[in-house]
Amino acid sequence: MSLDDLFPSGLTGWQIALALLSVLVGWLLSRLARKGVLKLAERTPGISNSVAQLSARFTQYSLLLVGVGVGMAFLGANVQPLLAMTAIAVVVLILVLRGVADNFAAGVLIQSRQSVKIGEEIVVEGPDGTLRGVVQELNGRAVLLTTVDGRTVHVPNALLLTGVLVNDSRHGARRSELDIRIRRAADLDLDDVIALVSRAAGGIDGVHAREHPGVSVASVSPERWMLILRIWHHPLHGTAVVSATVRGVAETLERSGVQAVVAPRQGPPPLVTPETI
């Protein structure tokens, strides 16, 4: 396709001037629009810099192309071949970038709604089961997590938006449970033991004082009592706080002459058996 096929002969100076003016105005508007998008993104909480830059470039190039198209129209260009080529290019681009566009749109929704933030611990569905990790980065394609065992996971924004998301940090505290098996004795009172366990747990460093430790009775048998201790702690400090609580409660019970087994709870309360502690 030659220039003679696009532009008719006999162009006037006004047509050329208007075409150049159209391109110039389109260029200026594209620059202003880019700055406006960046400022809007700064005022919108949760929008990352990568998403803001990508949105600004898309807006800038779109307005620039509009200015060029209007300028060609002033020159009397035959736009039918250009429209056909543009339509083909758009279709190919949509097919190629469909996943990218889905993730970008999902990323904008995630960051604008602030369903997750950097530094929060979340749980998502992975290829081999659930994944738990701390959010390190939010970008236009994926959410980057660092798992507790040191792996880096890239979760596509579209998958995070449509799948099940558990945010362990949004509440500001997380609850953990411990199982305590107490061997019964004639000189032991259940209420006194519960109060002792509650005081011991409340004195552990990292256990929240606002949400007091709670102790409930899971089962009672002639040989022992089975208690459930519930404590609240920082969402990211669960392992350390639970470990300190197990040790502190066990030492307190031992000093008081109470035979007990203290362990983090892994599931539903264990069944009562005639076995001794």
From TrEMBL:
Keywords: Cell membrane, Membrane, Transmembrane, Transmembrane helix. It is found in: Cell membrane. The chain crosses the membrane at residues 12-33, 54-76, 82-101. The keyword Transmembrane applies. It comes from Microbacterium algeriense. Gene3D superfamilies: 1.10.287.1260, 2.30.30.60. Belongs to the MscS (TC 1.A.23) family. It is a multi-pass membrane protein. Residues 100-169 form the Mechanosensitive ion channel MscS domain. This is Mechanosensitive ion channel. The keyword Cell division does not apply.
